[in-house]
Each structure stands twice: as C-alpha cells, then as structure tokens.
Amino acid sequence: MSTQWPMRRRLMLGFAIFALVVATLFSGYAMVFTYAVEDQFFVDALRYEATVQRAHHARTGHWMQPRLEYMSVHEDPSSFPPDLREQYRRTPMRSENAGDAGRHYHLLRLSPAGEGSHGAFLVAEVSQQLVVRRYRNDLLQLLAWSAVGVVGLALLVGYWLARRTAAPLVDLAQRVETMQPNDPPPSFVGQFSPHEIGVLAKGLDSLAARVHAFVAREREFTRDASHELRTPLAVMHSACERLAQDGSLSVEARRQVECLRQSAWQLQQTVTTLLSLAREENAGLQAETVAVLPLLEHVVVEYAPLLEGKPVEVRVDVPREARMTLPPPVLRIVLGNLVGNAFAHTSAGQVCIDVDGGRLRIANTEAMDSEVRDALDRPFTKRQASTGYGLGFAIVRRLCERYGIDLRLETDPLGTTMSLALDSTGVAI
What we know:
The protein is α+β, with helices and mostly antiparallel strands. It has helices at 7-60, 82-90, 131-177, 196-244, 251-278, 292-303, 328-344, 370-374, 392-403; strands spanning 71-74, 96-98, 104-109, 121-125, 288-291, 312-317, 323-326, 349-356, 359-364, 407-412, 415-421. The strands form three sheets. It has a five-stranded mixed sheet, with helices on one face. It has a four-stranded antiparallel sheet with strand order 1-4-3-2, sandwiched between helices. α7 packs antiparallel against α9. The longest helix has 54 residues, at 7-60.
C-alpha cells in the first residue's frame, strides 16, 4: 500500500495548518488591539486637555500651558514642528502623523477655523510615551513562540487523534488490499467498532463473501461448460473423420464432411478461447506469428453464406507478408466476428478488406447509427435489422483488450470501417 501522504499525516498537517492560521490571526488581533488601546489613551488625554483649554480660553481669552509636557498649543499650523507642518500640508484631515527621527504626533483642533485663520490646535508629540513601540519586538517574539507552542500542541493532538481515527481505517485498508477474489480472508467485522468504519467493514466483508461465491459459481460453470461443450464437439469431429473414410461417399459429400470437420475443430478452438477468456487465463493459448491472408481467406469463405442473394462485392487486397503475433484461435474469432459483421450488415455495395498504414481494414458501405456505435462495447447491442444477439463486437473488444490488439472503429455517412493494427510484435510488413 502506498505510504505517500497517508491519512494520519494529512490529519496532522491539517491540524498544524489550522493552528498556525489561528495563531497568526490572533497574533494580528493582539497587535492591533495593543496599538488601538495605546492610541485611544492618547486620544482620551487630548480630549481631556482640550476640555480644560477651552474652558480656560472662555474665561481668559487665551490658551494656557498644557499640564502634560509632551503636549503643546499652536494657534496656527505655521508654528507646527517642520516635519508635522509638512504632513499637515499634505493631509490636513489626519489626526495622527508620523514625523522624522521616530517622532509621532496626535492632533486635536481646539477652535474652528475662521476667516484668515486655521484655528488653534492641541499637539501631542508622543514618541517617548509609545510603550508598544518600545516593547514591540519582545511582544512579537512572545507571540511567535506562542504560535510555535500552539502548532506543536496541535501536532500532538493531531497525532493522537490521527492514531485513534486512522488506525482502524489503515488496518481495514491493508486487509482489503491483500484480499483475493478466490481466497477471501476470515470475517473481520467483529474487529472494528460499530461506527462508520465498522459499517464499512461489514459491507466489505459481505461483498467479499458474495464475490467469493460468484467466483466459485463461475469456476464451476466454466468447468462444467468445458466438459459439456468439448465432449460433443470431440464426438462430432471423430464422427466426421470416420465418415470421411467411407469410400462410398461422393466427392461433394466428402467436401461437405470436410467442411463439417473443419467447423467442429474451429468450434472446439472457439470454446477453448472463450472459456479461457472467461477464466481470465491464457493457458493453452500460445502466441504465434500468423500469416493473416490464409486465415482471412478461410474466414471469408466460411461467412460467404451471409451474402447469398445480396448484390455485394467482396474485395480482398491483403499482402501475403502481413503478419500478427497472436494465438491463432483468438485471431480467427476476431476476424470471424469482424468479417461476419461486415457481411451481415451490408445489403448492397462492397466489402473491402485491405491493408493501409500498417492496419488491416474491413470496410463496408453501410453506415452505423451513432447510438449503436456509442453502445457497441456493451453486450446485446445490435443494429435494428440484426438477427444476432449483439455479442460479437463485445467479445472482439474483450479479446483485443486481453491480447493488446489495437482495434479501431470509424463510421461516416459512406460506411463503417473496423481496423486492426498489424505486426503487433514488430514484424515488418
């Protein structure tokens, strides 16, 4: 089982990222809150001093010296310190300004602006009273170490939770990974708690039992089918051989007997191939480098009765050196289904079998409906006029997938073309 980013590690990483985001967010909030409290302290001090100044000005007609040494009264912005005066000129509406050399100013208007006057201002230069600035680095360091501690705690909690949460699932995944359809493991439902993982284990255990039963039934069927089909075919083949030795038979009768014998032998090969495909085995089917043309000619003759009474021309243009490396029964089934399909579904016109671009093409002049073409891989899919069961192309597709045959289906209004890649093992054509 792949250990790349298992669930346990992803849970720990998720906890760590969440803790880091939360720690960063609350550290930012802490810094903003600290600065806001400090600024509010200066604002409240200016407001209190402004109340006293205005009362004094109402009684005496002039401004008094502020009680706090970092505050000063300016009857006009022209008396501001140079750095504050420049800031006020650019942004006259700001009540807080940063000056040069670390100075920091808070402004509060004492009297409204009049004609030819900007009004009086109360100015507090608070650079020496900025407590946060003085301890900012220490505060940031404290917050950083706190974030590291929170992330470390999150990793520990995540590790503990991941072990408790992921361990049963990892155990279940390992058991499922080692399961074999024909050898299911003992029931493991009782080994998991009756929560979501227990429900999943119960479902998988039930599924494994059904798969095992299905595999057993399929094995029994293929064994019985192999016996029940091969025995009568062997009898037919043997009877044809004995009949062929009868000297009283006419030439035509001998030809028909030979056709029956060949058909029985081919059916035996077909049964062997299909049963092997059903059992997902390749035993007994040895790949050979097969000349395509002789086998193709035999298939054309075999399926020629499908063209009786039809104005259909068959054209075969396949070079003798064309080769495919496959078990001969497999190639015969594939070619038989493709040629038989072309013959059965061509009511008039031409069936052309040739080689182009390293591919064996079987083309006919009957177009295929798009609905049928899209569903052709599924069993029992056939054209409306077909008298078959719709299994031929599905069998061909499975055989091609099993033996690595490049099969292509192309259709257009002019007809349908099915093609196979020749020389699947690199033999030159």
